[in-house]
Each structure stands twice: as structure tokens, then as C-alpha cells.
Amino acid sequence: MIRIGIVGCGEVAQIIHLPTLAQLRDRFTVTALCDISPAVRDGVGARWNIPHRFADYRDLAACGEVDAVLVANPHVLHTETALAAMAASKHVLIEKPLCITPDEARALIKARNQAGVVAQVGYMRRHAPAFLAAKAIMPDPGEIRLARVHDVLGRNALIIAPTSNVFRPTDLPASAGAAIAAAMAAATEAAIGPAPPDLANAYALLLGLSSHDISAMRELLGPPLRLLYAAHRGEGGRTLSAAFDYGSFVCNFESTIDLIPRFDAHIEVFTPTRVLRVTWDSPYVRNLPGRLAITDTDTSGNARSSETTFWKDPFVTEWEQFHAALTTKSPVKTTLEDAAADLDLFQTMVTAMRG
Predict the structure, then answer these.
(1) Average pLDDT, whole number, for the chain?
(2) Average pLDDT in the 287-303 region?
(3) Could you give the CA distance from residue 69 to residue 80 in angstroms, rounded to a whole number?
(4) Coil, strand or helix: which one is 206?
(5) Among 99, 230, 231, 252, who pairs with 352 as Cys (CB 3.0-4.6 Å)?
(6) In sequence order, which residues have a C-beta less than 8 Å from that of residue 249 and are 6 or more positions away?
(7) Residue 291 forms beta bridges with which residues?
(8) CB neighbourhood size of 141 (10 A)
(9) Can you list the domains of the chain with their CATH numbers?
(10) Is 62 in contact with 36 (CB distance < 8 Å)?
């Protein structure tokens, strides 16, 4: 039984992680939480009967009733939170993105090595059964003619509002949000240098939504040989496209966020005789299925399509993998080094976006 402390009790923690950990109650118990908002901290604590509640992540890290820490606070705070947890000999599951800058990634890797703890990054799409099934039947790279990574979805609020009742930090002053925004702006400049607002927004989208896509692409197809192009367009630079050279084929990447309440995320791989397509649905409605669709030909040469539906939630498999890493020394798939590779690729993409 692993005792979990949660730092950051916003939408992801309330809608996804706490119900997932309750589903896995034979392996995990949530003993502590931390949030700067008393309204959120006390609301979530009472709702889930969590005994230890803190306003400062350092106090949670020092709590003797915690074995591992879920780092789910704002992105720019991930590094300092995870470093405090590891310094207190706590294992960590860090929500994506791992951090903002490559220097932070190196510091986190060093701290993990010194502390001898398990550190896993929350790329839950790569734990989805549909994704794992696709990986098991991936063709040889030399057979692939084309690949496509597509992620177009409505703002999360369009799905969350009609499906969830979330405790909100209504008791915090506006200065709290302004401080996080200022810290994020400074960290972004440290990562990519001085940048106009649209390029800073593009980097934020790469760190957020697109980190799922690029991470899954790298596992399924391997690391690209080079970047052919990358561009940002649209309102505030929040529409992204890129092309990655894999030698014998090109992988096209496209992503944007709009105002239509739906979730359209998939990876397609094309060979001369088969097309594989992995589809994910919104994580904010738990247990929606993932799908693996295969298009090929029948014995008469006619085109045929089949689709397999996988109901197990990717967050469940992600937490199961974390438990196995802690209890049986099973290797971590989504490591800190793996996430650092994403940051390196994002740097290359931003350089190309500068033109």
C-alpha cells in the first residue's frame, strides 16, 4: 500500500487522479494534499476524507505519512516541488510537462539519482491499452510510407463544465494568478530566449497538449532524424504544424484548440498494405475507451476496416505502472530522461518557428 500526497488539487487531481487512486484502493491511499487555496484544500480534503492538508508543498514533502508525491500544481512549479519531494526521499509522479527548461530537467535527473527514488512523468496516453496494442504490431520502419499526428480539440472547460463539479480557488486574490503568469514568462524566456507573445504561446502549447503527441510519436516511431519545418499560426500562435523526417517517411504533426466541445486526437501510420490508427478520447471523462483501427485488404483484395475498443482508462494503467516500479522495481517507461528529449525537440521546433 503506497501512501500518496498530492500537490495541486485542481481539475486534473479532482476529476482524474483522485477517482483513479480510489479505484486502485488495494494499492494506494491518499494521505495528504497541498493547495494554496483553502477553499480547494478543505473542499477536496473533506470530499475524499484526506487527513493531512498543507498550504506549502515543502510541508507535504516532509510529512511522514507520505511515500510518494503526485506533482500536479502549475507547470512552472513542477521543478521546485519535485526537488523538495525527492530531497525528502519521496518518490514522484510528475504531471506533464516535466518542467519548462532543459536546465530544470537536468537538475531533476541529478536529484533523482542522488536520492535513489522513482520518478515517473505523467504521459498517460503512452499507457493506453490501444496505444500499447498498436506498438505491438508496428511495422518495420522501412515499410512505413507516411505517419500523421493529429490533435484538435475544444477547450477543456467545454467538456468539464457539463460533466464535473470542481472546487475552485475563489478565495485567492488576482495577484496569485499574476505571480504564476510572471513566473511562467520568466521560465519561458530562460528556455527559449526573448520571444514575442505568439511564440511564447506556441511553446506553452508544446509543453502542454502537444507534449502528449510528440512523446507518443517518439515511442511509436522512434526519434526523428531531423525537423523539416515547424510553424505557428492563428490567434496568439496557438495553431501548430510541423514535419519530421524519418528517412524513409515523413511524419506530419498538427494541433490546435478551438471552441467545439469534442476531442479529436489520433496517430496514423501508413504502409502500402495496412493503416494503423490509434485514437484517444478526453481524459476529463473517465473510462472513455481508446481505439485501434486497422485498414487493410481481405483475401479478395477488397479494402476492409476493423476497430478494437479498449475500455481500461490510461490513468489506471499509468498508476499501476508507477506502483509496479515502487514495489517490484519494474522499469519506468516515461522517465525524466525521456521527457527531457521532448524539451530538446521543442527547442528545435521553436528555433524553426522563429523563421
Answers:
(1) 97
(2) 96
(3) 13
(4) helix
(5) 230
(6) 141, 144, 145, 146, 147
(7) 279, 309
(8) 14
(9) 2-124+321-327 (3.40.50.720), 126-312+335-353 (3.30.360.10)
(10) no
Band (pLDDT 50/70/90 cuts) for residue 102 is very high
DSSP state of 132: H
Distances (CA, A) of 172 to 36, 40, 168: 8, 10, 10
| Distance, CA of 132 to CA of 129 (rounded, Å) | 5
**Residue 180 per-residue DSSP state:** H
Q: In DSSP terms, which residues pair with 5 in a beta bridge?
A: 32, 69
**Res. 309 pLDDT band, cuts 50 70 90:** very high
What is the helix, strand, coil percentage profile of the chain, to 5? 45, 25, 30
φ, ψ at 339 (rounded to 5°): -65, -35
pLDDT at 355 over 90: no
What tens digit of pLDDT does each residue of 68-85 get?
A: 999 999 999 999 999 999
Q: Does pTM top 0.85 for this prediction? A: yes
Residue 320 sits at φ, ψ, to 5 deg, of: -60, -40
Alpha-carbon distance of 217 to 123, in angstroms, equals 12
74: nearest Cα among 90, 89, 95, 88: 95
Q: What is the dihedral of CA 62, 64, 68, 72, to 10 degrees?
A: -50
What's the length of the chain? 355
**Three cell numbers, residue 319:** 498508476
Task: Give the 3-state secondary structure of residue 208.
Answer: coil
Average pLDDT over every residue of 100-128: 98
Can you tell me the distance from the alpha carbon of 275 to that of 295, in angstroms, rounded to the nearest whole number? 5
Q: Which residues pair with 54 in a beta bridge?
A: 34
Of the chain, the end-to-end C-alpha distance in Å amounts to 52
What's the average model confidence in pLDDT over 120-139?
Answer: 97
Query: Cell numbers of 165, please?
Result: 463539479
Exposure string of 32-42, with b = 16+ CB inside 10 Å and e = fewer, is bbbbbbeebbe
